[in-house]
Predict the structure.
Amino acid sequence: MQRRSVLAALGRALLGGQAAVEARCASGPATALARLFTAQPASQPSSVEPGDAEHSFRAQDLVIERSTVRQPPINLQDLKFGTVFTDHMFLAEHAAGHGWGVPAIKPLGMLQLHPACQVLHYGMCCFEGMKAYQGADGRVRLFRPERNMARLRRSARRLQLADFDPQELLACLKQLLLVDRSWLPVQEGYSIYIRPFAFASSGVLGVAKPTRTTLSILLSPVGPYFPTGLQPVSLFVDEHNRRAWPGGAGDCKIGGNYAPTIMPQVEAAQRHGVPQVLYTFKEAAQHPDEAQFEEAGAMNVFFYLQRRDGSRVLATPPLAGTILPGVTRDSILQLACSWGAEVGEVEERPVTIAEVREAHAEGRLLEMFGCGTACVVQPVGSLVRASGEVFTTAAPFDAQRSLAGRLQQALLDIQYGRVEHPWSVAVE
């Protein structure tokens, strides 16, 4: 499908609204519709009272201290992800019994931590990943930022960090972006990566509810994730290690979900020459091929399959507590569903190793791809098992005609404000 038809489809989806998107997907399984394309999991148990956010810091109280030191201009050609930071940062601190202090935008600097700080000993931290874009209209733009703010709050609740109002934090973030507006590259494909994060800053050795919380935001200019264009990667199918467990915190963006994935990732690179791991889950009594795919170390995953009757389906594992509810994941589901017959059916359901093996063997494995804030869409050309078995897509990847490529372009058009869409939020 050409780009013009992609944009036309987006316009039709926008005019129809969310209700139209849901209606077009009515042919999908009932189990998928019960939790229709939400960036939040089905259940959100929490011991935090809803009224706690009433005592949040307020953007109207924000104090801005401008840096007197300017960093040298950055060389965009040598820009590496997450290594360069803007002149300022946001900071707010909470103490039990005193509440939130005055929120501040201040010069980028070091944080002072007590050596017994709970985050250092128990990993009590959570974070988000977002981007700010130079819009086609010249304005700074964010992509569905309310989703990230809500997810950060939910992750903080899971760790019992101090509660806050997501809208107030979003207002503070917008002010931070305006203060460091000059850092946003105007070149195509560049953006500012935004890292909100919160952690337990109590200086006490004890596994208990934190009495101090630090909340901060960093900004980092970044270049295109694919300097040479979309290129498929291979993933190692990890059938031994688990990223998360039912009843745990796999659906929250907390540090404890990421640190344990480093060793499997390093081993996969050393033994199989692949850059990332795709995790699976199965019960002890199940056959290995009944294992269900979950997510990669930092990406949700999609499988585009052709059924034996010739129909097509785009499937992604469901949100059942062990998978991060990605904002990009949710966006892809909604876009793909709005395109209707051009894509086929769109489902949130378990995808097993056995299903992918059969599709591969019969030439019905059309595409595989991951998605996330950093890469947006990452094509996957093959899956490698420890046994040496490899599953590959039926045809070589075509960035222009593939579903992954079309989704990538559609999302970028929204993010950079090249098409009108409620997901693109102007800061100025």
